Amino acid sequence: MRTSSMPLIVAALLSACSQSSGPTQTPEDAGVTPEEPLPSGPPVPTGPPNVPEFQPAFPGQTRVPAIQTKTAFQVTELASGFRNPWAIAFLPDQRMLVTEKPTGSLYIVTPQGAKSPAVAGLPRVDGRGQGGLLDVEVGPDYAQSQLIYWTYYEPRQGGNGLAVARAKLVEGAQPRVENVQVIFRMMPTLESTLHAGGRLVFAPDGKLFVTLGERSVLEGRVQARDVKSHFGKVVRIHPDGSVPQDNPFVNTAGARPEIWSVGHRNILSAALDGQQRLWTVEMGPRGGDELNRPEAGKDYGWPTIGYGEEYSGAPLHDSPQGPGMEQPVYYWDPVISPSGMTIYTGELFPEWRNDIFIGGLSSQALVRLMMRNDRVVGEERLLAELGARIREVVQGPDGALYLLTDATNGKLLKLTPR
Fold first, then answer.
1. CA separation for the pair 222, 141 (Å, rounded)
2. Residue 84: φ, ψ to 5°
3. 208: enclosing H helix or E strand
4. pTM confidence score
């Protein structure tokens, strides 16, 4: 196990007015005291936007002032040798489940970094492209049931699709899962190795949110706002896969009753905040990554509106705003390529309380968003010196941040105060 210390970063956060779409806010209005001034100054240096003609819908929707963490911290390498790992979930004794995307392998890792043999009994995955074994979560009743849940690209006749499965984890020298049950299948089946989403989030009431991409190809993309398709949606189910009767489209003729919100591109980041509300970050095309707070029955606009363009540089949207479609809380152009997300509630870093942390792939950084009153007021790029694609970030039971790097020799890292 190797430890490398990060330099102490000190910055004075200068006083400024909060930016919002409504009237000018005072610090008290924004939920902070006058002794905690909001950041001001230039944004994080990222270069010019890809679509400069698209202007934000309200001040502070993009390129907020850059901030710097004051607390000195260190990054410890707990384990390595993972082939493109994707997700971390904590067992009650603080051991971790870690998925390996292309191989479809699941491992149990101790807090000291010792790795088990691959867990036996998982179903076969379609590991091409962005496929494979993706997220993993421990069931809220794990102490009684030993149930774990995971998402994966399921090979099917005529293509593939995201599936959610659950099973009992049986430990031992050769850990395994028993009684595997597929509780959700993205429909329709389509041949694509791209954009299936795949993050899992359990709500306090036991309901399970699943984020779904729109498969990228045009045939899938045009279904993102169509309630007859799972593509480009957040869905909400019971842990056994049944549909909650208070879902917004349960009584809509022809709609998939699991749907919670529509009009998303590819959501690889999702977490609950301190009020137990769901937040997501979805990948845009060339420009237009979005931070959203998906609410029941709402339409987030993809592919009709957005802040990006095609990878070719061709125009994609006539406008970034449209009637009946929600605006993102925040967007990035150029993109960060988000994957993995946690909203910090721990004790180790008091200055990070309620801030959002997002793994950055193309940006090769841990992206920190300072939040006030449900708005982003400051942004920071951490760990850029590692030169690593950050695939996953979770807060551990100890208040530390745990990260996965996306590489053929992927690493499990732990971030703590120095």
1. 38
2. 45, 65
3. strand 208-211
4. 0.92
